[in-house]
Design goal:
Layout lengths: L1 H29 L21 H8 L16 H6 L12 H7 L38 H5 L7 H7 L6 H5 L7 H4 L18 H5 L23 H6 L4 H4 L7 E4 L2 E4 L6 E2 L4 E2 L4
Length: 274
C-alpha cells in the first residue's frame, strides 16, 4: 500500500511539474521578440486587442481623412489659397504625401500607387476604405520617431504596464507639442495657418467617449490607471524634444535633409534638439 501511494505521489508530482513547465514555456513563447529596427506598421496594428476606441476615434478625426483631401475637387478653397490646382490629383505628389500619409519615404511607410521594387513588383500600399492605415496621418506620425514596430512589441509584452523610458528607447516620442510642428508649422507646408493651437487640436484627435462600448471597454487605457502613473514620469523627449525633419525635392523625389532626422538607422541612435 505504501509503495502504491509513493508511486501515485510521484506521478502527481511529475504531472504538476510538467504542467508548470508547460505554462512557463507558453508564457515565454507568448512574448514576442523586438525587431532589430524601427519600422512603420500602420494604424490598423494599433486596433483590435489594444486601442480599438482610440483607433475608431482617429478614423473619424481630421487626421484619419488626410489622404482623401489630395483627391481632385476636395478642399478646393484651401488648395486655391495655397496656390494649388483644386482639380489636380495630388495622391502621388511627394510634396503632399510627406504630411498627408504615414512614414512616406521611410522604412515600412506609405508607398503611392505605381510604386515598384527593383524587380518590378508592385509594392504600393493597399488602401482599404473600411480600415484606413498608412494612407492617412496615423498613430505613428505623432507617437514615433521612425515607426512603432519595436515599441508596440514592448507594449504588448507588458500588457501596457511599461514606463516611458521603456518605449522611448525604441523611438516612442512624448514631445507631442513639438511633433505637431513636423507638418503644421513646417516652412514647406503650403497651407499657412499661423501658429497651431495645440490644446484645441489635441481635443480633436482622441475624443474616445462615444467610441467605447461593451466589446472594447477594457481597452480604455485612461481608466486603467497606467496612463496616470506614466503621467508622473518625465521622458527625455519631453525635456528636450526630438529633431524635426526637413526635406528637399530632387528629380521629383523627396529626400530628407542631412542632419535633420530624429533617428539614424546606421548608428541606431536618436537625436534630440540641442
Amino acid at each position: 500500500m505504501g509503495k502504491t501511494l509513493k508511486i501515485i505521489s510521484l506521478v502527481l508530482f511529475s504531472a504538476v511539474f510538467l504542467i508548470g513547465f508547460a505554462d512557463e514555456a507558453d508564457a515565454k513563447k507568448k512574448k514576442k521578440k523586438i525587431p532589430n529596427k524601427p519600422k512603420y506598421v500602420g494604424s490598423v496594428k494599433c486596433n483590435g486587442s489594444c486601442h480599438d476606441p482610440y483607433y475608431q476615434a482617429w478614423v473619424d478625426s481630421p487626421h484619419g481623412k488626410t489622404f482623401a483631401l489630395l483627391k481632385p475637387g476636395q478642399r478646393a478653397e484651401a488648395k486655391k489659397k495655397a496656390k494649388l490646382d483644386p482639380e489636380k490629383d495630388y495622391t502621388a505628389d511627394p510634396q503632399c504625401l510627406r504630411c498627408h500619409t504615414t512614414g512616406y519615404r521611410q522604412l515600412g511607410g506609405f508607398k503611392p500607387a505605381g510604386s515598384k521594387n527593383k524587380k518590378g513588383k508592385d509594392v504600393s500600399t493597399k488602401i482599404d476604405p473600411e480600415e484606413p492605415s498608412l494612407e492617412q496621418v496615423g498613430c505613428e506620425m505623432c507617437h514615433s520617431a521612425a515607426g512603432g514596430a519595436q515599441f508596440r512589441v514592448v507594449m504588448k509584452n507588458t500588457k501596457g504596464d511599461y514606463k516611458k523610458s521603456d518605449t522611448e528607447k525604441y523611438g516612442q516620442r512624448w514631445d507631442y507639442k513639438n511633433v505637431c510642428t513636423r507638418c503644421h508649422n513646417h516652412p514647406k507646408n503650403p497651407h499657412k495657418k499661423g501658429k497651431l493651437d495645440f490644446a484645441k487640436a489635441k481635443a480633436t484627435i482622441h475624443p474616445i467617449a462615444k467610441y467605447v462600448n461593451e466589446d472594447n471597454a477594457d481597452q480604455d487605457i485612461v481608466k486603467d490607471g497606467k496612463v496616470k502613473d506614466r503621467a508622473k514620469e518625465t521622458a527625455k523627449s519631453e525635456e528636450k524634444g526630438l529633431r524635426i525633419e526637413d526635406w528637399n525635392f530632387k528629380k521629383g523625389k523627396l529626400k530628407f535633409a542631412k542632419g535633420t532626422r530624429p533617428y539614424s538607422s546606421k548608428k541606431k541612435k536618436f537625436y534630440y534638439i540641442k
